[in-house]
Amino acid sequence: MTVAGASERPLRDDEPRTRPDRQLRVEFIMGTAITVDIRAPFVSSDAIDAVFEVLRDIDRRFSLYRRDSELGLLAAGALLEADLSADVRWVLAACDDLARTSNGAFDVRRHRPDGIVDPSALVKGWAVEEAALRLATAGAVNLLVAAGGDIVSRGEAAPGVPWQIGVRHPDDAAHVAAILSMRDNAIATSGLYERGEHIIDPRTGTFPQGLVSLTVVGPDLAWADAYATAGFVMGLQGLAWIDAHPGYGALAITESREVVWTPVIDRYRVPDSTGAHGFSDDSHPEGLH
Amino acid sequence: MRQRITAAAGALALALMLLVNFRGPRDLALATAASPGADPATAAGGTSSRTGVGNGSGATAGSTGSTTSGGTAGPTGTAGSTGKTGSSGSSGSAGSSGTGQSTTGVSVQYVGPVAADPYGNVQVEVTVKAGKIVDVTALAMPVGGRSGSISNYVAPILRKQALTVQSARIDGVSGATYTSIAYATSLQGALDQAGL
Predict the structure, then answer these.
(1) Which chain B residues have a beta carbon less than 8 Å from that of A180?
(2) Residues in chain B with pLDDT < 50?
(3) CB-closest option in B5, B145, B181 to A26
(4) N or C: which end of chain B has fewer CB within 10 A?
């Protein structure tokens, strides 16, 4: 059972399993586990420390779980939007732009029952992009930064081997429903299975229907993350909406347990490696029905 | 030390990053990060202390085989995982007063408190075996979902396939993760009970 590029032989049980081929660090920031995985060439430990400090700083300014963050103060009415830092104002402006282009499917000012302005869907992706950028500046070429299930990849996992990213199976956290093989791309997933109906249609205040999860792949995680949230709200139509954004692709898992994806995903998708299970319509790209 | 993780993050990552063993787990980079094999004594101590990533991962994988995955995709015996085999210098070194956790092969569950979230209540259960967290389960999560028929709208550009379990060497998993502080709060409560 191999996929493209997976050429290493299995380790015997008695072989050591140290991994001198990667720099790996995980810290708990922004309410989730942030993973940095760097493959050669490596960077200094100080450089990785600095990246995590950047993420902590973003958390201090953006976290709604901190009353003294800028967004926390904004939510409490203690700060006006005009008084926010440039980064925070940029994020809110970007969110407002997306509210317009998504016809309100993504609206950080209306999607919470308590009415608090919550741009978390875009902030996390933006923060991870910042982290990846700083690691690249420090000399990393092949790297992966993950915040929960939102991932930025640069370069490759090994010479000639792209990063292999699984898309979580909606019914079983232990397994994946698709595998995407990529270099230099971001991937974000929105869904209901873990966050407990975290996503509300800002236009109606109801829970979106049709999809169980929506995964977006594209050049920038901030947008991939936001598109995933917006597209999830739109349901199946969200795939076509995302397809209209150059460079971005979407893969959805529907309530009827089908995997549906846009053509861009074909560049990355590893064909079903289980073979015997299910069916594949790969040779019939004419559509669903 | 090139490879470092935060022990607490490792424990939380087990739940939050939704990573379990797939085939060829030795290459599951994030599973390494999620390894609960880090010294459990530090797991409850916050995010400041770090420990070697290799610690006890082999042993961990051995025990996780009995928990969440069970593995419809992965054959049994894939539990090699990353990290040094048998290097579990941290194993059982918690020195904590937890009950039953020193008994190899016995799993003990600790249920965390119910924590409130803007969207509902969250409650987490951890399973401890031989002083290590081998599973984290959400007993309660905010609900309110509704099922409905899928829109009949389909773009002709779309392609589809029946949902199946995929297995291959992977470096990470994308999924909607539960990022609530309430989750962390309940998890911490369960860890406290477990004496980790």
Answers:
(1) 174
(2) 1-103, 118-119, 142-155, 178-181
(3) B5
(4) N
Tally of domains in chain A? 1
Q: Please state the pTM of the whole predicted model.
A: 0.61
C-alpha distances out from residue B103 to A236, B58, B91, Å: 50, 18, 12
In degrees rounded to 5, what are phi and psi of residue A79?
-140, 140
Domain-embedded: residue A289: no
> How many CB atoms within 10 Å of residue B87?
19
The predicted structure's pLDDT at residue B30? 30
Sign of CA dihedral A197, A198, A199, A205: positive
Q: At what angle do helices A221-234 and A86-101 cross, to 10 degrees?
A: 40
Query: Any idea what the CATH number is for the domain that residue A210 is in?
Result: 3.10.520.10
- SS3 category, B88: coil
Indicate whether A135 pLDDT > 80.
yes
Flag if A157 and B171 touch (Cβ within 8 Å): yes
Quote the ipTM score: 0.79
Q: How far is A88 from chain B (nearest CA, A)?
A: 21
Rounded CA separation A288/B16 (Å)? 33
- Which range of residues forms the domain containing residue A20? 2-267
Which range has the top average pLDDT, A100-114, A200-214, A257-271?
A257-271
- Quote the tokens at residue B102: 């020193």
